Amino acid sequence: MSATPTGSIDIDQPGYVTLDRLGAASTRFFRENGYLVLTGAVSGEERRTLIDEAAAVCRGKRGELGGAVPMLENADAMTDDEVLRHFLCIHQPHKFSSTIRGFLSQRGIVEVLTRVIGPNVKCMQSMLFIKAAGKPGQAWHQDEDYIPTRDRSLCGAWIAIDDAVIRNGCLWVIPGSHQRGILYPQYPHDDRRFDCALEAYGFPYTEKDEVPVEVPAGSIVFFNGYLLHRSLPNRSETGYRRVLVNHYMSAESLLPWRHKEGVGMARTDFRDVVMVAGEDPYAYKGYEDITRPHVRKAGDGGCGDGRSDLDTFLKTATKEQIARA
Ligand SMILES: O=C(O)CCC(=O)C(=O)O
Fold first, then answer.
1. CA dihedral of 75, 80, 86, 91, whole degrees rounded to 10
2. 108 pocket-lining for ligand 1 (C-beta < 6 Å)
């Protein structure tokens, strides 16, 4: 057990390991269950750096934020708390924050990824979740639905800046759900517990199969891109459940993430990537600067297009699809 500001968390359970005890058993746990928790991986000082950087990013001090939520015009007159509560999640902060870019190759992350992915690893995405008290979670999904690798190597590294427990909206996973390598269908849910991202349905598991991944601040949760996972709302009275989550894959795989004019799907390769370990066999192609930092829609004021997607789904789906959803 670990006593933390938000209660006690069982860090002596299977799948939880410290850097000095990482070994074949950890890799085996990850392969079988689709996730692994590295505890004590990020120091208090590193977390404070991330907390300050999150505030600077939200204040617009690192540059323009595009996306669904307008930037704050009077952030200088607001407290950190007022500024942070404005955002649920910022995508690609590493594109304008050298501090966050530094965390892409954090020691514990590289140690685990080179065991579970292989020696050559690249990163294509970062996301900074602020998730203040009262903010929604994200419905069931599989990350490969969004970021398609060609060798199923996608892996998230979810750095807990604060304790993450059931009450403030930790991750929930369905252990082993990655193994069959199936991508389940998704639909635009209308469930206000979750943000506007689509929800997976039609999988052969129930809520009895899910487990909460409660972790003390400074832990990193690694999870496979086919693993079904979700998070529930932050039901605390105050505070945040801040997380920096980065996504990685083997450098050997092409990444058909964005369509490119004139390039067939088989050759499509998203090159806005950062190498974090080993060698890039496609370095001869060079690197590109494609994505910009942007804010994800939280759904506080409704999901706009997401709701019309729901209407379209209801109009076009078969009765069986609707029943399964
Ligand atoms: O942290 C969360 O609330 C959701 C994160 C997640 O599902 C992901 O990174 O894929």
1. 100
2. no
